[in-house]
Design a protein that fits this description.
Blueprint: E1 2-3, E2 8-12, H1 15-20, E3 26-29, E4 38-42, E5 45-48, E6 54-59, E7 63-67
Antiparallel strand pairs: 1-7, 2-6, 3-5, 4-7
């Protein structure tokens, strides 16, 4: 579970580049590698395919991630 499920990303760069930047070129991810079940406050990373664009900030700066085990019912 992830809370919040969306973040605001503030970018800077040349206006023509920002105007033409499709949302599909902006990726926000949280690295869960090696984490076990529990609750974590993690910092999202922003990856932008377009050059000449800089991430100024991500709001909120951290997200809460709850990792739980999936219990599979047995017949």
């Amino acid at each position: 579970h992830l809370s919040p499920q969306t973040v605001d990303v503030i970018l800077s760069g040349p206006m023509p580049v920002l105007d033409a930047l499709p949302i599909s070129d902006i990726h926000v991810e949280v690295d869960l590698t090696g984490l076990t079940p529990g609750t974590y406050q993690l910092t999202p990373k922003v990856l932008i395919i377009q050059q000449n664009v800089t991430v100024e900030s991500i709001l909120p700066g951290t997200v809460e991630v709850i990792i739980s085990r999936t219990i599979t019912p047995t017949p």
